[in-house]
Design a protein that fits this description.
By secondary structure, the chain is mainly beta. It is 5% helix and 39% strand. An eight-stranded mixed β-sheet has the order 6-7-8-9-4-3-10-11, with helices on one face. The protein is globular and about 40 Å long.
């Protein structure tokens, strides 16, 4: 089962099951929370995710949204939304083997910074892939 964790190693997690999706997000909220021009996410069912070590800090970044990160090194780890309570998004790059889950879609392109290129071959969505 794939595992991952934060930069300093204080938080470790494991995911099971088959990912529901794998996406690159360009929304302003993800950019500001990560300090990067986009964030790659792999989504799984909530029941297929478990924290093995540590206790990530929770931050309610917007209405119905909780982002979790390491309180020591600041690594962004997960995104949870009340719109999809049975799912959880995990920052792909915090996985020990991020290449196992390449993105298939880019979302929130209407928020993309002009100098950030898009990836050819991926499905492109102006907003959420669910819109």
């Amino acid at each position: 089962m794939p595992e991952g964790g934060c930069f300093c190693g204080d938080v470790r997690y494991r995911m099971a099951g088959t990912p529901l999706s794998s996406a690159i997000c360009h929304c302003e909220s993800c950019r500001r929370a990560s300090g990067a021009p986009s964030v790659a996410w792999v989504s799984v069912e909530r029941k297929d995710f478990e924290i093995l070590k540590g206790s990530p800090v929770a931050y309610a970044s917007s209405h119905g949204v909780v982002r979790r990160f390491c309180g020591r090194c600041g690594s962004a780890l997960t995104y949870e939304t009340a719109k999809h309570p049975d799912g959880i998004d995990i920052t792909t790059i915090t996985l020990d083997e991020p290449d196992r889950f390449p993105p298939t879609v880019e979302v929130w392109l209407e928020d993309r910074v002009a100098w950030q290129p898009t990836s050819a071959g991926l499905t492109h969505c102006p907003r959420s892939s669910l819109d």
